[in-house]
Design brief:
mainly alpha
């Protein structure tokens, strides 16, 4: 199950999306996420879905690999759908005890489920095609104007990069601890939900200890390399916009125009 979590992982491929400037991909991801909240009808997702599939094809990331990221959030997705189905008022279709399924609830639940799926898939695609170092540089560059307000832009970007880098490391560490516990007779797959939750408790202590140990090692490594923050630091590979980046911005402008027109039409 843990190996199915692909959020924060980089998928290497020789594609035009991988070669784009990280600032273009960050802006495109933000625009894509915002577009998902501009509509209250299924037809509004048409432009977002077409845009997403076009980017997937250009990225050369297998669609099955992208869908694997949905498995860990199936419980959250199911909870979101059921929450909207049972708590939305409207025309009652089925009623049992205090639970009511309404026509408007079914529509709202399906709508919110589709929105959540598209949001997670679109956000994950950015991490699949962008390394943590590129994300750090791109985010720091986009947030540069905030330095005028004395916001520690470099430190914020560095923390986000480290967090993304530690996701697959901690998942791998959790998998190792679970296998070690299972070899000693632990059972994580049978029993009620409460029993499974209790069985997971012995995993958290060694996982937290391991996380602190890795954080301490990372801090020592940064100090040994005389890391003192972003002031006065230079970059080995400074970001520069190229022709393909301006073309990508053009496609984003077309997508934004299509969203605006579709919103007015609906």
């Amino acid at each position: 199950m843990l190996r199915e979590i692909t959020i924060g992982q980089y998928y290497p491929a020789a594609s035009v999306i991988h070669r784009l400037d990280p600032r273009v991909k960050l802006v495109g991801t933000i625009l894509y996420i915002v577009s998902l909240f501009l509509f209250e009808q299924f037809l509004g997702f048409a432009a977002a879905l077409i845009f997403f599939f076009c980017v997937v094809v250009l990225s050369r990331v297998p669609f099955r690999y992208i869908l694997r990221g949905l498995k860990p959030i199936l419980l959250l997705l199911l909870f979101t759908v059921l929450f909207n189905v049972f708590l939305t008022k409207g025309t009652v279709l089925v009623q049992w005890w205090v639970f009511k399924i309404t026509k408007e609830g079914l529509y709202r639940g399906g709508f919110m489920g589709c929105r959540l799926i598209l949001l997670i898939l679109g956000s994950s695609l950015m991490t699949f095609t962008t390394t943590p170092n590129q994300l750090t540089d791109g985010l720091e560059s986009l947030l540069t104007p905030l330095r005028l307000l004395r916001v520690p832009v470099h430190d914020i970007a560095m923390m986000m990069s480290i967090a993304l880098r530690f996701i697959p490391i901690l998942l791998e560490e959790t998998d190792k601890i679970m296998k070690a516990q299972q070899a000693r007779g632990a059972d994580f797959e049978t029993g009620s939900i409460l029993a499974r939750a209790k069985a997971m408790l012995p995993i958290f202590i060694p996982l937290i200890v391991s996380a602190f140990r890795r954080a301490f090692d990372l801090a020592q490594a940064m100090e040994a390399r005389c890391y003192r923050g972003g002031d006065g630091r230079t970059k080995m590979k400074p970001l520069r916009y190229r022709g393909r980046d301006f073309v990508a911005f053009g496609y984003l402008a077309v997508y934004l125009l299509a969203i605006i027109l579709l919103r007015r039409w609906l």
